[in-house]
Amino acid sequence: MNASRFVVLHDSNFDLQVLARAGVSVVDFWSTSCIPCRQMTRLLQQLAGEIPPDVMIGQVDADSNPALVARYGVRALPTLLFFKDGALVETRTGIDRRQVLRKAIESHA
Question: What is the CATH number of the domain that holds 38?
Answer without folding.
Answer: 3.40.30.10
